[in-house]
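Sharing a chain and its predicted structure for anyone who wants a worked example. Both blocks are below, sequence first, tokens second.
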Amino acid sequence: MTEAFDDVVKQYIDFVNQQVGAYMDALAGFAGHYARVERQVHRVNRPVRAEIDDAGRQVVVWASYEDPTKPNVIHNRIIRVEDYLAVNAPGGSNEQQHARAIVVFLFTYWEAEIRPRLAKAKGVPIHEVRCDAMGDLRVLRNVILHAKSVMRSDKQAELKQLGGLFAIDEPVALSYENMHKIFVAVKQDCGKLMLDWLGVEDAPIQPEEIADISIQKHHRPTQA
């Protein structure tokens, strides 16, 4: 039995919402790491001796309040504090890595799983199931995976909805604001898919006005 078109769209919306939640939780985690380490910088390390060496350079010996022999001290990695703060700062490499992974994940799930099922549910060839936002995600996915995340002019020209978010010959910067716009654009396309499938031409709200979307289906009670 062919599954319902709206059920497939709903599944993708639920998937997008999962990515929104994971993204927001990750940002909170990065911010927490940043705040904790920033507070610890002056508490954990303290100078215990300073002297001038033979070359006239000041040498400072630092000691830690933490005891590395205690079992509750977990050694994660060795990294300079300023580097750790930089990668966990807003817009830092950790945030960018996570955001880029979500963009790739959103497109891959759409292309490999959702789009073929929508075509089957609608009874049309797969190339007839098209969305501008999903096409833009395809471009972003290729830039991230095949161009070291650098947006070239030819790729930027292919973007239909998200072109204004990215500068030419610069790394793809997926800020919080840009990710919000991407999530909204994807959900707007889901709304457009639903309106087209339902044949609604004069809807009270247009797809480009949608900020979020959910699908609720009412089932008739069974007869006794």
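Comments welcome. Residues 10 and 216 are 9 Å apart (CA to CA).
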